[in-house]
Please model this.
Amino acid sequence: MKFETVIGLEIHAQLATKSKMFCSCSNKFGSEPNTNICPICTGQPGVLPVTNKKAVELAIKTALALKCRIEPHSVFARKHYFYPDLPKDFQISQYELPLATGGYLEIEVDGQKRKIGITRVHLEEDAGKLVHVGAARIMGAEESLVDYNRTGTPLMEIVSEPDLRSPREAAVYTQTLANLLRYIMVCDAKMEEGSLRCDANLSIREVGNQEFGVKTEVKNMNSFKAIEKALLSEEKRHHEVIEEGGQIVQETRFFDDVTETTTGMRSKEFAHDYRYFPEPDLVPIEPPGEWIEEIKKTIGELPAQRRERFIKDYQLPPEMASLLIANKSMADYLEETVKLFPKATAAANWLTGDITAYMNENKKDFSQLNLTPAQLAEILRLIDDGTLSNKIAKTVLFTVLKTGKQVKDVIAESGLTQISNEDELKKIVQEVINNNPKQVEQFKAGKETVMMYLVGQVMKLSKGRANPALANKLLTELLK
Ligand code: ADP
Ligand code: ZN
Ligand code: MG
Model:
């Protein structure tokens, strides 16, 4: 039997607002535990929530970028369950009437483009955070601490259709979505910090079957790579169970990134377990058309459009364009550089190559870089007009990165410019001729390939500063 895999993702994104979803507490990450709290977000009796308009705006902005329909009337609902990180014993979410429905996100896997349906985008509040002492999860922990700072922070849930067909596609989808959220500045989308979280639903079915198989939901992946690994392991488990004649039970499973396997966490709860009902303390969201139009104008260029523009206007290879747009700061940096030095490919090569390597090694990002686009453009221009060889330019680049000095000063201090002056270079060429009588003889006897060796010697003696073309010309002249 041939099986195919079916995956749908529920992505939770923390919205980049100043305050929480229904109170004015700070939404800042990393504060001292239990300092950003108030009677509303800790669920004291008698308090009233008020919807954060900015959160609604950012969720609408996201829904528009995902080509969703903004619902004219959406409603908050109480979702009841008990857990120590949920002081009210219910989470305010949206259920039957979400903020937006029916969009899509285009992804590209191995050069193939696919549209992944978006079922809905809705708003909700986050729960608090439990810190388990002595174990990664509550099971096996000595004790658990609760931090209510995160309680009530604005979350947006983006639910995909079961359109994904492999763990790899699921990882690419999440990455593409994270990149989009960063571009439109609604969420910093850092999986490691938990500002983007993914619940992944997977099932398998026989190829040709119209009905889906029983799904399981996997949680606790904190990187794109982990999503792929978790789903690969879960996919394998589904195959094993079914091939042995067993049945998959619908449940929620926990991904352990040490063993890279999933284990059962709890049997799947059903909607009726949550006793959903409309939140009586909040008014429905009915966004006016003019407001939606205004929000639309703030979206700007999306990553996919930018990629197309880079390919078309800058003649960049598609893979290079993908690499660049995956990092918004890098793409911005390229555009700034290209304004000053129009050969984009050269700039892109340096950015995705040596500069990225330097940043990775030194754990820096573009905002901490000692090299401005103007300086990069200056170095590129000096290579272009023959003042610097590629090799020297690299030295100059790294010196600027390390010291933050001006390009001109670095070159002046180290005398690093390319030698393109005939008289100056002639001295070096003559020395090479004097030092290599054997090779000179071979050359004169007709072995022309020796020329390459001699040019190499000139480069070596000049510490890479000789203009290779000029060295070649002078050697030819002097050896006649
Ligand atoms: P639940 O009621 O269990 O939360 P939903 O219908 O709300 O399930 O779907 C949740 C997520 O699971 C969605 O992203 C959806 O695409 C995905 N999903 C639903 N059914 C399946 C299935 N059989 N296999 C894989 N994913 C599925
Ligand atoms: Zn509060
Ligand atoms: Mg659901």
Remarks:
- The chain is about 40% helix and 20% strand.
- The first helix runs from residue 53 to 65.
- The chain has three domains: 3-294, 301-414, 422-479.
